[in-house]
Amino acid sequence: MLINRTVAPAIAELTSDLYIAPEVQTTPSGARIHIFENNIQPVVRVEFVFKAGKWFQSKPGVASLTAKMLKEGTHYHTAKEIADMADYYGASLEVNHGFDRSTVTLYCLSKFLPFLLPLTFEIILQPSFPENEFALMKQRIIQTLSVDKQKNSYLATEAFTVAIYGQDHPYVSSISEEEITALTVQDLVDFHRAAYAFSNAEIFITGDINKAGLEAISSNLKGIADAENINPTSKTNSPQTGLLLNKTANQMQASIRVGKSTIRPTHSDYPALYLANHILGGYFGSRLMKNIREDKGFTYGIYSSLSHKEHDSLFFIGTDIKGDKIKETLEEVAKEINLLKQEEVSEDEFLTAKKHLNGKFLNDHATLFDKMDKYRSNVLLGLTPDFYSQLLQSIQILTPKDITEVAKKHLQDDTLLKIVTGGSPE
């Protein structure tokens, strides 16, 4: 049988349920444990999530430096000893910090979990913040920052978040060399004591976890003294709108950021806005990509996204372009947004975007860890565990008219901030 290669294969309907329901236990320490057990592979991941992100810091940089220093030594082990022990067991110990939370993650074979948990708790509870390592860490961060400050893309994002939130807001991606230099070990000790508290921690366990492993975690949680919780101050700002131009030494390239604070995922308009964003710039076949990359050749890539933090959401368009194509690019971005508001999406484009989202949702939930990642995000954002299943179902019943209406409502030009960094705007 000959295959007609001019005809694309049919796209299968999405039938998979994206919902998972981990068992949730509350410990005497106050921490909640979310357990998603599956023994297909003898691997387990344990994530300890604390309210220790930028949102809770009292000084610029203290949250990120504290997280980075956790593996640089404890009262009982040096950084090398910690790394050697993880290597010996074929494990991975990671510490990540964000705007709202910081996370300590252990990946290992399930049979080694009881041996590695004491080290993990030691890193969390008893870091020594050695002075020499702290000085080297600050030096590396300052060097990296010096390089980043030469990049239009970094400066554009910095300027965009400052204009949206205000200079001192924790969601601003900005820090200075002077602020890093001013930090002391005592600043880290004080922040660690207050922020890395198990009384408000979330622990996510994924994979081959057995009774012995759970007992090992519970045993390590016993007797942990409660810490003094941080009470963040209220952070408000009146976001700027309109066009802001920032000149830099790099005139060959310009970075553009367009966007605004937008609705939360719990809003009734969110499914329609999610699909509208996907059509506009959410994937390689989007309108912005076809126009500004494929047709005009101004950029290698342009995207739009909906980004969520625990206290705000952003609609965001970003691209790096030829330095002499600023005016034309902004005009084309505005044109595509206006078309989304003025003309209903064709049935063919509408169906393609929805089918692509179906595949994206499946890919985003492909593995055990992927599924737990989505579940964890739902927990931290205050969403229901079945949020993505409900979102996908809501998207399936949308019409092209819904896209037009939501774009008119939430993508008004006079509410958008446009940042241009670098290039030659004249």
Care to describe what's here?
The mean pLDDT is 92. The N and C termini lie far apart (61 Å). This protein folds into two domains: 23-221, 2-Layer Sandwich (Cytochrome Bc1 Complex, Chain A, domain 1); 242-422, Cytochrome Bc1 Complex, Chain A, domain 1, CATH 3.30.830.10. It has helices at residues 62-69, 79-88, 113-125, 131-148, 152-165, 177-182, 185-195, 211-221, 270-282, 287-295, 326-342, 347-364, 368-381, 387-396, 400-410, and strands at 23-26, 32-37, 43-50, 92-97, 102-109, 202-207, 242-246, 253-261, 299-309, 312-322, 417-422. With 426 residues, the chain is α+β, with helices and mostly antiparallel strands. The strands form two sheets. It has a six-stranded mixed beta sheet with strand order 1-2-6-3-5-4, with helices on both faces. Strands 7-11-8-10-9 form a five-stranded mixed beta sheet, sandwiched between helices. Strand 4 (92-97) and strand 5 form a beta hairpin. The radius of gyration is 24 Å and the shape is globular. The protein has 15 helices and eleven strands.
